[in-house]
Amino acid sequence: MGQAVPARAILIVEDEPFVRFDLMDFFEDRGFRVFGAGDAEEAIALLEADDTIRIVFTDIQMPGAMDGLMLAHHIRERWPPTLLIVASGRVTPRDVTLPARAAFVGKPFDPREVLQEIERRSV
Amino acid sequence: MNRTDPSDLFSRLVLRSLSHPLPAVAQYTLATVAIVLVGAFRALLVPDSLPWLLFIPVILGVSLVTGRRAGLLAAAVATAAGVATIGDPGNPTWLTAPQGTGAVLFFLVMIAFVSLTASLRQTMSKARALNVELVQRERYLADREAFLSSVLAASTDCIKVLELDGTLSFMSEGGMLVMDISDFNAVRGCPWPDFMKDKDVPLAQEALAEARQGRSFHFEAQANTFIGTPKHWSVSVSPIRGPDGQVARILSVSRDQTAMVEAREQQRLLNNELGHRLKNVLSLVQSIAYQTLRDAGSLEEASAAFSSRLASLGRATDILTATAWQTAELHAVLESGLAAASALKERISVEGPRLILEAQAALALTLAVHELTTNAIKYGSLSVDAGTLAIRWAATDDGRFTFLWKEQGGPPVQPPTRQGFGSRMIERSLRAYFQGMTELVYDPAGIEFRIDAPLPAVARSGRV
Fold first, then answer.
1. Inter-chain contact B286–A22, Cβ cutoff 8 Å?
2. ipTM computed for the complex
3. Residue A23: closest CA among chain B residues belongs to which residue?
4. What top-level class of enzyme does the UniProt entry assign (chain B) (predicted)?
5. Å between A31 CA and nearest CA of chain B
6. Confidence class of residue A119 from pLDDT cuts 50, 70 and 90?
7. Which among A3, B228, B408, B459 has most CB atoms closer than 10 A?
8. What is the pTM of this model?
């Protein structure tokens, strides 16, 4: 599908592999090129290796030195045009400072809503 | 009690006669006998002198010890005895005129003495009664004070009395204990609201204002003890009225509720944590649902597979709840994953050391084992009577975890035409959870599944 335009690439950063693979499947089924990362370090490595990734979805709660929120800020600074979606089951947008132009979704969420958010912000 | 126990013999005798009064007959007999004895003594030993003198102490003694009536009797008997012993039988009037005048004067003076002495006796009696009452009152007050002190001391509340300006004038023993105060003088006169944390000072001031108006006030506040230990208090402030009904002082009772507040906070944190975990589990369930529906042949098949996967997830939840969602032991994980084959236990051999898994890995392995078990029962070695299943794992000395699932004796295995939920779940998810190698081999002799992963990623507290 969508041969005329090159497929959009999305990076899913989520430490729970089952949920990560499921989201990857969801977006793959809808014509995206998908990448998955279990932590911020892996995510940054993927972004550095492939500059076609313009959409990043990240969970806030993640193990490691850098959590999802710090990762989102880092991406906003380093790859400013990236479309950012931040998710959490623990905090609300009121509790944290999101990067500019980042969307927030509370977990659990309907992946379709994330897709709609991406479509809206891609226009 | 000393006050009612005078030291001199005389007073003691009088007091004893007051507390143990003789019957009237005995009093009169005593008076008469004493006078007669003294009269006889005088008549025999000193017949010619002192006709009256010796009677005086006896009459005084009798009236002091027995009172007015017996005293008057003694005076009369003494006068009669005197008259009888000093008279002259040759004298037609028995007594000479001076002797008669002396007898009359003696009697009159004795009446006056007896009256005086009896009054003295009455006064002593009243004094004694007052004394007894005073002592009883004192004892009652002392008992009451001891009782109130013991009640105050027994209380673990911090009970304080404040002056109207809010300064401390009393603190209970128990209160000093909970406030870490060893000497009350260190805080006497200090303004009580100053003990509160800054944010709670206005509450304490409001409480004082209410108490001064005669109303009680209750509030919760934070205050450090005297040595700086932070505590939470439940504080009740109420007016203490004087005899005129006006508010004279203020009572403040503070209860240390630190443990309760901390428990409440702990519970709040636990609730938040539980909410977070619940959302994580819901996300997992959502993924299982999507993955199940994604490759389902029919709605019926999807429904059955989904229900069975949820049941398996539920059993894994049971194991994790026991450790507050921290870890699970591998034997328990396998038991819940193998639940679908519980009727075929004699054909399944499970061997491996005790091993602790992290919660996420335990959940994933439970689901994977559930998929393998369901497949084995439907198509694999557990689908025929002769088939067996062996599960082995080891934690090697070079820090690796190896796991083997091996089916034997089942129908010849054919590789699946497409990857379903089970094999996807097993291959890619477990690989990520265990951060190692996973391999699902469709050996015609029987399905084999292997994990080879570094031990630290798997076992939290190592081998036992």
1. yes
2. 0.87
3. B287
4. transferase
5. 15
6. very high
7. B459
8. 0.66
